[in-house]
Amino acid sequence: MVLLLQKELRNSRPDTARIRILVELGKYQLYKAGEAKADLDSSAQFLAAAARLSDSLGQQVWQHEIKSLTMVLTMERGDSTGGKKIYQQLLAECRRTNDKATEAATLFRMGVWQRVRFGAYTPVLQDYARAMQLYRELHDTLNEIRMQREIAWMHLTEGKNQLAEDMLLNVLERYKSIGYKKLHYTYNLLSVASRVKGDNDKALLYAIATVESMQATQDTLSAANFYGDLAKIYEDVGNHKESIRYYQRSLDTWKQEGLPNFAMFFAASKVVREIIREGRPKEALGLINNLERQVPPITLIQKAIIAQTRAHCYDALQQYDLAEKYFLEALSKFQEAKMDFEGSQQLQQHIGRFYLSRGDFQRAGTFLRRALSYYPQKNAVTSLMDIHYMLYKVDSAQRDFKSALDHLRINKELSDSVFNENKSRQISELEVRYQTVQKEKDIQLLNNYTSLQAARLKQADMRQQVTLAGIVVLVIILALLYFLYVLKNRHNRELEVQQKKISSKNASLQQLLGEKEWLLKELHHRVKNNLHTVMSLLESQSAFQRNDDAVQAIRQSRDRVYAMSLIHQKLYQTDNVSSVDVSEYLRELVAHLKDSFDNCSNIRFDVQAERLEIDISQAVPLGLILNEAITNCIKYAFPEGRKDNVILIRMEYAPDGRVKLLVADNGVGLPADFDRKRSESLGMRLMAGLTDDLNGIFTVDSGNGTMITVVFARMEIADMPGASTDLNTMSLSA
User: Fold this and answer.
1) Residue 731, Cβ neighbours under 10 Å: how many?
2) pLDDT of residue 435
3) Which residues lie closer than 8 Å to 400 by C-beta, 6 or more apart?
4) Residues 535, 569: Cα–Cα separation, whole Å
5) Which of helix, strand or coil describes residue 656?
6) Which CATH code is given to the segment(s) 583-732?
7) Torsion of CA 478, 483, 487, 488, to 10 degrees
8) Three-state SS for 20?
9) Do the beta carbons of residue 63 and residue 106 sit within 8 Å?
10) pLDDT tens digit string along 261-294?
11) Pick the residue with more confidence: 600 or 329?
């Protein structure tokens, strides 16, 4: 993906397409796993380049999107105060300009940050609800449902498991109603919700549906995570073999990506503990050491899970001092990261078990109670069972029999809720059903292969039977072919005679067409030369005039003649002798008018023109209109001494398919009592009359300057090359 974007960037022009490429490259580096400083610096460079280009082009929506990503970048660099400042400013700007899409995206991005870094729930839920409402107003159903799914995930993180599950089921139903195929992300959250509630049969059902949906859509971006979640559920239901198989599959998938990730090291810890269980602790220690060398950890929690895994290895090797050291080191890194989540809770549970096995009941009880105090409603039921059972042992050893009995009773109740006969039967049936589906697919493939082989054998028998008959038929066909060959030669000779006659006529026609094109070009060339002669005569005449009004009139006539001569010049310089490229013509006409007036040094010309071919019958009146409109702006819009003067000339397709010409300035505007219909100005009358020749609509508006608009239908041109719809912007600075 990155290589493709970089190639597109090298071949791009300074337009909105380049902005999009720079933003995509910035996002890739920003969200790249590991939060490395080099990646964040690279992201900053791409976003800064995108910001400069969007500012120069005045692309407001892109400016907002870049600021939103810059907000995330600032907070990733550790400047949460600066990030929140950008956040507040950007929200105000989006609301002022009614940019609802960027406002919603910004609310979501800040919500993710607050949820992960600060554990905030209420403000994040409020922001997500606001984002969902904005997407609803934009009729962006897909993003609206996505925000509903994020809100459900927030409730699941809060421990409101039933509310989260109800919302996720509604999300699933809405996705299906619009035909959305990538349902695996929703199935995955439903699986997590069911697992936390202790409803392992549903959790397994949703986890299997997650993997099947992922494989059906070939969207394997989160495959490693999905395999890891399925492994956890198999672990909870006691299917140790399948659990380890999917943990290994998750680890292999992560290693293929080669990027450090907590989930990869977590899966590795599970595989390591399985190797330890098989009595190979040295091999287990070698596995985690090699993984650390191949994919070095970056974040604190990644380093914490590696330290925890080493602790299990040294515990199995009976090197208890090293085991204790690495257990406490892992806990320290979790606490330094300030991220209380399931991994931290499980570590407390493992440390408690370690001290319990050493007979240190005081420390064991301390860590186990910490693990139990981690939002019990958010813990998986199987983890709670294990913690209560170990606390039962701790309290019994310390002769606190009442507390010990309470923990044993809770352990029994949780055990009954998870492993009752009905649930075990449902889980077994579910696994059998899943395995049966897989076997049925394999059987179907074998049946298809068998059928294919049978069809091939049958075809071979038929070929043998047909061969003899084919030989007989072949003799007959050869005789027919010889007859047809003789007949074909006779017809070919006749066709060759006709072809020679046709070729001779075609050559004559091509010669006539070439001569016609040459004559048309020569005609346009001579017309241009004659018009230039007229311009020279007008220039000479103006030199002998002493009356300023007469000189101005002659110069205006000269410019009008130039506007027409430029059209004929374009016609004889190109292969197309019947149409003119307006974008090139417009730029040359503006350059000529800049040179013709002395007061253009403080005027900036902003020319925006699509590549547009216009028939000569429309090009001449259009050129005269442009000449009059631009000349009026130069002469009357900007009094002497005025700064920041801009003339905008825009030629584009209107939404209804017609051509729209706009000439506007930011000057003093027209007089308050100006009435175009009563105006005595020759220029205004000329532009209105020429617009009528185009069967167009001519309007004049005056507010912050003067704006002249001409809208007309373009005459179709035969064999005209396809016009590009890219908007080329050129600023002519004095």
Assistant:
1) 11
2) 56
3) none
4) 14
5) coil
6) 3.30.565.10
7) 0
8) helix
9) no
10) 778 888 888 888 888 888 998 998 999 899 888 8
11) 329
Q: Would you say the C-alpha torsion 407, 408, 414, 418 has a positive or negative sign? A: positive
Of the listed ranges 307-311, 400-404, 460-464, 718-722, the one predicted with least confidence: 718-722
Report the amino acid identity of residue 703: G
Concatenating the DSSP letter of every residue in 616-648 gives: HHHHHHHHHHHHHHHHHHHHHSS-TT--SEEEE
The span from the first CA to the last CA of the chain, in angstroms, equals 42
Domain boundaries, the chain: 1-139, 583-732
CA 429 to chain centre: 42
pLDDT tens, 637-650?
Answer: 888 878 889 999 99
Output the average pLDDT for the chain. Answer: 81
- 477 vs 530 pLDDT, higher one: 477
Question: CA-to-CA distance for 498 and 11, rounded, in angstroms?
Answer: 51
**CA dihedral sign, ordered 353, 354, 358, 361:** negative
311: nearest Cα among 320, 302, 303: 320
Rg (CA), the chain: 40
Q: What contacts 313, CB < 8 A, 6 or more positions away? A: 272, 276, 281, 284, 285, 288
According to CATH, what is the number of the domain 1-139?
Answer: 1.25.40.10
Strand 697-703 relative to strand 705-712, pairing = antiparallel
Q: What is the DSSP letter of 723?
A: P
- Flag whether the pTM goes above 0.85: no
Q: Tell me if 304 sits within 8 A of 333, measured CB to CB.
A: yes
Band (pLDDT 50/70/90 cuts) for residue 578 is low
Tokens of 507: 């050559």
